[in-house]
Amino acid sequence: MTRVALLSVHTCPLAALGGKETGGMNVYVRELGRELGRLGFGVDVFTRSQDPTVPRVVPLGDGARVVHLEAGPARPLPRPALVAHLDTFVEGVEDFGREEEIEYALIHSHYWLSGLVALELRRRWGAPVIQMFHTLGAVKNAVARTAEEREPEVRLTAETRIAAEADRLVAANPVERAQLVWHCRADAARVAVIPCGVDVELFRPRDPAGARARLGLAAERVLLFVGRLAPIKGLETLLRALAAAKANGLGSTAVRLVVVGGDKEERWDGVKEGSDVAQAAGRSCRDQMDVERFRGLARELGVAAWVEFRGPQPQDVLPDYYAAADLCLMPSRHESFGMVALEAMACGVPVVASRVGGLTVTVQDGVTGLLVPEGDAGALADGIAALLEDEGRRGALGRQAMEWARRFAWPCVARAVVGLYGELVPALRAVTRPFRCQSLHFS
């Protein structure tokens, strides 16, 4: 069996979504690995162990598995701190390959930390490297509003190096390709545009009343936010928009904003001050403080009774949240793609999102949802109110959203990725299982 190595150093694809280190990239790596396995490839997804109770090797599906490697303390660490442990991670990958008597035909790395590992493995193995960043430090810095939100120089330097040295790069859309060229001086001819995917069997329209009953939601109108509680996700703008909508008459309707995301509480007893673990503990405490800050802001704005924080949720529970929602809201400052938007649309739910980054092509304005200026709480409030008040339009957008999202079924995405693999390793071109795919190109 021909095997490929997928690298996801800083976050495990099996982790619950919505936490500080988890999001669309976790879904991408997990679903791509599973689909490649279904196609007949052997797939090993290498990630850093963050919990000693999790088995070293966990099955991911037919022919695919996740391999947890020891590289530094088996606890969450700040991403820049992981650079010091990358050599250990490389040795762990090599040791595993020797133990299993495996030679990997290709390395597919995700995020900048994985890219650094991939370049060293290529030097040792000679296998080609395909890199996907998922988000760029320079782009995050462009929308940062505080020093704490800015990405360190080590990341910016690494991304420029990886963009220059990887055999091929993958961008989720033309916007990201342009950012790679502009910020990292990447060669546009070496950047393949392959969108992210969605599980159309899991994320599909279902009965809203049943979903609300299972989730204990009794409100007349349900709004949904899914994502990390990081400033870049724009939850503050959403709360202000909710207050504006309430002031403009939405208060006569029973509304509930459900927030899915945010880290669960963790214990940090016995942690040495100043250590990497202490820094991670500080981040976790800040995450919990963020929840309280958002609760406080909701009280200040007079919408606390409308907002419910549900924390991170398992992937198989998310479809009920989408089904229960009248609208899915993405007020982000930036998104490379917007996988949450794609999942919501696959469930037949219109999206109201910021007109930024990949959302400008993932969401078709006026067709599958609405795009509004980033940070404009008034425009966001108007978009929410307009769709809540127009059931016919909301229904039409939802139906069109579902049809659009089905273009991005994971089997189609995986075949596009295999096509790219085949350009570097001709033996990887074979695909075994038929699946009817529509065009993956954005219009």
Task: Looking at this protein, list some descriptive labels.
443 residues, alpha/beta, Rossmann fold, 2 domains, eight-stranded mixed sheet, six-stranded parallel sheet, 15 helices
Structural features, described:
- By secondary structure, the protein is of the alpha/beta class.
- The protein has two domains: 3-197 and 409-429, Rossmann fold (3-Layer(aba) Sandwich), CATH 3.40.50.2000; 208-405, Glycogen Phosphorylase B (Rossmann fold), CATH 3.40.50.2000.
- Helices cover 42% and strands 15% of the residues.
- The chain contains 15 helices and 14 strands.
- It is globular.
- The relative contact order is 0.13.
Q: What share of residues are in beta strands?
A: 15-25%
Catalogue the unreliable spans: 265-284
CATH class of the largest domain: Alpha Beta
Distance between the termini: 37 Å
Q: Radius of gyration over alpha carbons?
A: 21 Å
**Mean pLDDT across all amino acids:** 90
SSE-based structural type = alpha/beta
Oligomer: single chain
Biggest beta sheet attributes = 8 strands, mixed
Which helices and strands appear, and what pairs or packs with what?
Blueprint (H helix, E strand, L loop, with lengths): L2 E5 L16 H15 L3 E7 L8 E5 L2 E6 L16 H15 L3 E7 H15 L3 E4 L4 H7 L9 H13 L2 E4 L2 H11 L6 E3 L14 H8 L5 E6 L8 H13 L7 E6 L15 H26 L5 E3 L8 H7 L2 E4 L8 H8 L4 E4 L4 H4 L6 E4 L4 H13 L1 H15 L4 H15 L19
Parallel strand pairs: 1-2, 1-5, 2-4, 5-6, 6-7, 7-8, 9-10, 9-12, 10-11, 12-13, 13-14
Antiparallel strand pairs: 3-4
